[in-house]
Amino acid sequence: xxxxxxxxxxxxxxxxxxxxxxxxxxxxxMSIAVSSPSSLVEAADIGEATAIKIIGAAKKLAxxxxxxxxxxxxxxxxxxxxxxxxxxxxxxxxxxxxxxxAITEFFGEFGSGKTQITHQLCVNNxxxxxxxxxxxxxxxxxxxNTFRPERIVQMATAHDLDPTEVLQTIxxxxxxxSHHQMLLVEKARxxxxxxPIRLLIVDxxxxxxxxxxxxxxxxxxxxxxxxxxxxxxxxxxxLNKAVVAVTNQVSAKPDAFxxxxxxxxxxxxxxHTSTFRLYLRxxxxxxxxxxxxxxxxxxxxxxxxxISEDGVRD
Length: 314
Ligand code: ADP
Ligand code: MG
Prior knowledge:
The protein has two domains: 7-62, 5' to 3' exonuclease, C-terminal subdomain (DNA polymerase, domain 1), CATH 1.10.150; 76-313, Rossmann fold, CATH 3.40.50.300. 42% of the residues lie in helices and 20% in strands. It has 13 helices and eleven strands. By secondary structure, the chain is of the alpha/beta class. It is globular. Adenosine-5'-diphosphate is lined by residues 108, 110-116, 286, 307-309. The site of magnesium ion (MG) has 5 residues, from helix 7.
């Protein structure tokens, strides 16, 4: 139905505008329907009033934005898939695993296990659905140069998977700065046209932003950029029914702006966009404690996990 309509079918969108929109990644009705007027203004050199009209028309054609009855919402909720973390306790804390169409944020200090978890998720995403996987490909945006294929091999082997086959499903890109990091999400959309991408990792979401925007004077700009980035990530998640896991650092010493070391950086914007926030802290030996901070439908709670050569476990 609505899939047959394309960007060119929108009133007010001529060939030149359509071309500009497509170049900016707005290449189907859904991506326009869920965008903000200002992003279209920027992408296509159009006025704000036109942008609002285009978005309204896209919402109608793509059939989004109306009211639904609770039972229909329930049915849609049942289509949400859950990706296992390889720890039963952590999966339970998250209501059965990491949810598709939502952002799960892991924050914690250096060495708390954030990167290990993201590697484990890439391995698990390859696994059969009956094993808690999604039989799909993953995208890994690596900002700290900590992606290690060797770890994937270890974790895949521990789950009796062919390590090479698993590696072939993980699309890794190193982000050199925050601007590049944002571009990579757009690039991810192209990869999603060629492969079934059901997992997007951004490890770390905030490191570049934090390093590049220093001082109170640029705080607003940093948050604005981060906000835009998160919206693109959320869009990707919706369009591909993908699980999104992002990491966020907290420093052991108090942050100049956010004081409390256990508070994730990124401020209100990140706090409001992440659907699930997990605070990781070190415990004895290879144990880590994951605390669910914020969730729309789950109680707060904690899970103890371990990190070994095999990966994440109870
Ligand atoms: P961060 O939160 O900074 O991303 P990491 O996810 O990189 O932290 O966690 C690093 C920790 O993971 C190490 O301190 C170690 O405890 C554990 N780890 C990493 N690789 C291995 C391995 N091959 N075998 C066992 N434990 C490992
Ligand atoms: Mg890390």
